[in-house]
Design brief:
This protein is an alpha+beta fold. It is about 30% helix and about 30% strand. It has a six-stranded antiparallel sheet. Helix 2 (about 20-30) packs across helix 4 (about 55-65). GO terms for molecular function: DNA binding; DNA-binding transcription factor activity.
Amino acid sequence: MSWKERCEYMSKQRKLPLYVQIKNKLVNNIKEGVWQPGEAIPSESQLIEQYNVSRTTIRQAVQDLVQKNVLETRRGAPTRVREEPQVELGNPGIMHHELGTNMEVKVLRFEKLKEHYHAKYQLKLEEEAEVYLLERLRIADGRPIAFQQLFLPLSIGEKVKEFSYKDFDIFPKLGQHNIHYTNIQEVVSASNATQYEADLLGIVPGEALTDIERTTVGIDSMPIEYSRTKYLPNAFHYRVEIGK
C-alpha cells in the first residue's frame, strides 16, 4: 500500500464510528481464518485490552455481528463464530425455487473482464477494476431452464474457479472458505430473450423471461457477488407470504 493509499485509508477509517472500526477488525479475523467456525473469540476483557477501547464499544461491535448471525452468544458460554451462519435461511416470507429434480450447470465461459460497469458498480469496485464473469446455463432434468451471469470480485472468483464447473450453488463451497453472506437483495422483473439467450434456451427470440437481478453482501457489508439470471417462466416458482 502506497503512502497516498495509506493516508486515504486512514482518513476513511477515521470517519467510521469506533464500534464499526472494531467490528471490521473482528470480521477480518474471521475472513482470514484467525478464528475458525465454531471457535470462541477472545473474551470481552481481552478485546478491550487488545484494541484499547471501552467495554461499550466492544459490546456494540460484537452485538452487531450477533444480530447478523456471524457470531453467537449463549448465557454462561464464550462468544463463538457461527458454524453455519443462519443468514443463509433468507426471508421466510419470500420463497422461490427452480422446478425440477436433477439439477446441474453448464459453464459457457469464466474469465476476467474490465467491461460491465454496472456490475462493478453493484460490487462497489472502481471503474478500472477487473471482475470475473461466470456465465452458465442452469439445467433441470436435462433441459436448460435459465441463462445466468455471475460477476465476482477477483478474490472471490479465484476461489470459485475450483468448483464452478460442477456445483449448482456456489455459496455452500464459499462457506468452506469462511466467505458467508448476511444479506441478499433481489429484483424480479420480466425481459425479452435476445438471440443469444434464445439459442441457448431453445426458444424464439423476444420470448418473455423471468429476470432476477441479485446482489449478495458478505459479513463485512461488501458485495461478494452480483448476478443476473433469466429463467423460462414455467421453470421458476416464486411465492410471497405476508402475515403471521
